[in-house]
Design a protein that fits this description.
Order of helices and strands: HEEHHHHHHHHHHH
InterPro entries: ABC_transporter_permease, MetI-like, MetI-like_sf
Shape: globular
Largest sheet: 2 strands, antiparallel
Number of helices: 12
Membrane topology: Multi-pass membrane protein
Keywords: Cell membrane, Membrane, Transmembrane, Transmembrane helix, Transport
Protein name: Sugar ABC transporter permease
Subcellular location: Cell membrane
Radius of gyration: 23 Å
Structural class: mainly alpha
Strand content: under 5%
Length: 281
Amino acid sequence: MEKTLRKYFPLFALPALICFALAFLIPFVWGFVLSFCEFQIITEPTFVGIDNYVRAFTVDNYFTQAFWFTLGFTIVTVISINILAFTLALVLTRNVPGTNAFRTIFFMPNLIGGIVLGWIWQVVLNGVLANFEQTLLSNSKFGFWGLVILMNWQNVGYMMVIYIAAIQNIPTDMLEAAAIDGANSWTTLFKIKIPAVMPSITICLFLTLTNGFKLYDQNLALTNGAPNHQTEMLALNIFNTFYSRTGFEGVGQAKAVMFTILVAAIALVQLAATRSREVEN
């Protein structure tokens, strides 16, 4: 039976490989080629070398600004989302009354679309800021923290579910042995629980890291880059470059290639770092 499965494995894998090639591999390779071309129609490109990459940094000053804004946003959200999600998971695995209801409530925002979330929080936050005669669009700091709040509200519940599953899988004999040895709650947390859930921490860090860098729809709905592109993140900047500026299609494509490579590189470094901790523990 096992030999038969191995024999026909390529056949079973073929549909998935075809879908991967059509949906990702071929478009990525063609996009990489187009990043070295000037075009308005993708079937009529003109090769211009690395001009698009140079123009991305010299002609469009907003690209560098969007990178630093996105980097700061991602750092803050990765830390805040994972700390809040892990804390909630710890609380909701201690037989708290109404645990299932709380889990459902915290998870529900993840089911709402990004555009709708952005609109909801724009109404809420502008209502709050109106008391101070301010709006999300009047100051980039308001836009930044508005996006942070939105991202936390949407993703904390999802990451919490992953952490809950990991905590519930910690062997009870380990926790009982720690209690017998006199370990307090902090020692148990840092010496047993956190090392035991490192695979889940790896997953949650990866998801929040990549989600932070590639955020688009919430950014579009909440601030749309205002004021003066100061809250424009990388994905929105690339979209605006490609579709809103005639003659910049190649520049937008070059930005997209750099963006893909950047996110992939950072994600791989993060996976390597956290997986090494899994091995140690």
